[in-house]
């Protein structure tokens, strides 16, 4: 197998590993309590997701060693396309047509954008540049986290904000990794220890934020956001600080902008699809249809059959028994003598029947007849 073919295979396996890790993360996020939304350390499945993401990153680095950056980086964008059918196959989570359109648009736009980024000579960042980049990155991540916390009532918006923060953290960790790798070509130095610490902090923050982004927002929208933002941020830093440029001059720049618009449109489709799904779930819950929580953590409508309310039937009291008023009226029309209930003042039950209409649609109950000639007991 040639080096080029090996790099393609490694890139595809890396994308599958990333997709599998994202699916496991989303399942863990759905079933974890709020206190563990960032780091469910007690869940073995979460550690499996971390291992899958680590395997994907390792295979991606090895693929870069055998193939050109212009080929390996776009293939990494296939993570979104692989994740949707894998989620439908293994966990039964099917994506709608809008989600598929958004995923394909994001993948095509990202692949086109990355393929247009040209390579440059290996360069490193100076110490002031590293400090500036680290401070700006930390500020952006914290601001996005605060915005996500403020948008806790809108899970889809919160998810995109946290996924963007995660993508920035991962992208900047790649920038610092490249810087350290360039420094190590001249020998390992203790001056790179702060950069290694920044890499560890950013990578950890990226994992924790990506885990939180899957909570309550499904799989497609946060995964697509993370997959797009990560390389775009790294490419932006490469163009502005490492001297990288787009291929084909101004034509390549215009094509790159078009690809960016396509990728952004895909992310918007995925986000709006999730917002519409959230509104539909809220409308179903508000309509009183009832909802039960499934093992996947989603909401599933429960079939609730409303029994018809019977119409109130007018009744009268005869000899201690409630009798439909219609029967009494029929008996009276037939010439029968109709009497009411036995009372202490009328032991023979000769009191007349009184029909009284209800105020609120209840049963017709005869009111007791007050006898004005009752004998009062005097003390």
UniProtKB/TrEMBL annotation:
Print the keywords alphabetically: Membrane, Signal, Transmembrane, Transmembrane helix
Protein name as annotated? Integral membrane protein
TM spans, by residue? Answer: 71-92, 99-119, 131-148, 160-181, 193-212, 219-242, 248-270
List the subcellular locations: Membrane
Q: State where it is primarily located.
A: membrane
Q: Where is the signal peptide?
A: 1-19
Q: What is the lineage of its organism?
A: Bacteria, Bacillati, Actinomycetota, Actinomycetes, Kitasatosporales
Q: Which NCBIfam families match?
A: DMT_1 (NF038012)
* Keyword Transmembrane helix attributed: yes
Bilayer topology term: Multi-pass membrane protein
Annotated SUPFAM superfamilies: Multidrug resistance efflux transporter EmrE
């Amino acid at each position: 197998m040639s080096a080029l073919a090996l790099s393609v295979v490694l890139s595809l396996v890396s994308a599958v590993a990333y997709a599998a890790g994202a699916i496991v993360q989303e399942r863990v996020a759905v079933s974890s309590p709020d206190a563990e939304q960032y780091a469910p350390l007690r869940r073995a499945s979460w550690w499996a997701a971390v291992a899958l993401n680590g395997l994907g990153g390792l295979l991606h680095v090895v693929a870069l060693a055998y193939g050109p950056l212009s080929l390996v980086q776009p293939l990494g964008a296939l993570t979104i396309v692989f994740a949707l059918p894998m989620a439908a196959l293994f966990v039964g989570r099917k994506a709608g047509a809008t989600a598929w359109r958004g995923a394909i648009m994001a993948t095509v736009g990202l692949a086109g954008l990355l393929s247009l980024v040209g390579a440059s000579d290996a360069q490193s960042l100076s110490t002031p540049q590293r400090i500036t980049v680290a401070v700006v990155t930390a500020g952006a991540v914290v601001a996005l986290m605060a915005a996500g916390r403020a948008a806790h009532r809108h899970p889809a918006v919160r998810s995109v904000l946290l996924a963007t923060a995660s993508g920035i953290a991962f992208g900047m960790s790649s920038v610092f990794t490249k810087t350290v790798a360039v420094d190590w070509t001249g020998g390992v130095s203790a001056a790179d220890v702060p950069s290694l610490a920044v890499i560890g902090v950013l990578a950890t923050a990226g994992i924790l934020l990506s885990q939180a982004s899957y909570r309550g927002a499904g799989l497609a929208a946060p995964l697509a956001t993370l997959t797009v933002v990560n390389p775009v941020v790294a490419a932006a830093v490469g163009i502005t600080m490492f001297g990288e440029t787009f291929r084909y001059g101004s034509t390549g720049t215009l094509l790159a902008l078009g690809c960016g618009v396509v990728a952004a449109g895909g992310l918007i489709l995925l986000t709006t699809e999730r917002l519409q799904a959230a509104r539909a779930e809220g409308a179903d819950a508000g309509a009183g249809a009832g909802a039960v929580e499934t093992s996947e953590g989603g909401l599933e409508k429960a079939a609730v059959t409303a029994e018809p309310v019977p119409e109130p039937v007018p009744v009268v009291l005869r000899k201690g028994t409630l009798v439909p008023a219609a029967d009494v009226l029929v008996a009276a029309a037939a010439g029968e003598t109709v009497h009411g209930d036995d009372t202490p003042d009328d032991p023979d039950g000769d009191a007349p029947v009184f029909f009284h209409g209800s105020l609120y649609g209840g049963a017709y109950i005869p009111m007791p007849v007050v006898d004005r000639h009752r004998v009062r007991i005097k003390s």
